[in-house]
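Example 3.2
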Amino acid sequence: MNITILCKVVDNFGDIGVCYRLARQLKKIEPSNHISLIVQGLDSFHNINNKIDETKSFQVVDDLEVYDWNANDFCFEKFSENDGEKLAIILECFQCGRPEWMEEILFEKKLERTVHIIMIDYLTAEKYAEDFHCLKSLTRSAKVQKVNFMPGFTSKTGGLIIDDGWEALPERNEHGPLLFFMYDNEWLPLANAIRDTGKSVLIGQGKGRDSFIDACSRSGLRDLEILPFMNQNQWDLMMKSTSALFIRGEESLSRACLSGIPFVWQAYPQTEEYQLVKMEALLQAMKGFFDSEDFDFLYKLWMDFNLPSTERNEYNFENACKVFLEGLEAFEYGFRDFAVSLRKNGDLCSNLMTFIRKIDII
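Structure, written as tokens:
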């Protein structure tokens, strides 16, 4: 089966991280699948897979065909071949749109075959993930059919990608370091809390790194390590070795949820603080796995992590961070039970392949 995945890197590595994981898993569960990965932002792809050459229009890496989104003439020629054979199934990820050369093939070249576009949307715990899952939408051509496929946290969505190494909960490392991988904010209260609890911290690359390093310098926190860019498998192993996670985005969020490790998530900051809606939706999905007192504490803690520093009480925030770090084992039960529940929804890629067969688009 020919499956083409579209990825436009918008914010650091999360978009390509999910798409690369998606491509590898689709290839693994059905080796006969022919996967083409079209990427705008090969430099970011290189940062999570150093085998990627960001200067090439085309390359084969990990048994995946990788194309530069902007190689217009080359891609138009390759994807026009055999009545657009490579475009039989298109996974359009994160509302990234389609390259101009692909639009021309789909809507001007008058293909004889039917093309199916499956929209893989952002991960969210909001109700619309269930409402939009498998919902069809219109295009400019009857030959181009489009449907939504929603990642999520319930059995009424596509679930999460559960790939190699994530089939079971990792062994708990209670004495492991912390991971900091968040967006910019005033992180002095967190740095102070980490310093006072005597824990070491690993700092990921990307947005938020410099603001946290500055906070560590001001707090006197010295037990830290700035991580280099890592291949995706290395990053996964590193995450599993930690005792707690302070993470952002979608790719790291999905791994944190599956890890069973206590974590705090910073949603992507949005206008009118819509990130708080996304944060609260995820917390509500987790609520049933915690005692009410523990949940109330986590709710307030996550809220402070997702607000600008000007909207939170920094003294209370610092104390809450200390309580969390000093009581990680006391919160672990809820995170682990939540992680176990997610595996019952199945692997997103296996669910996707079942969906593809069900609507008979092989």
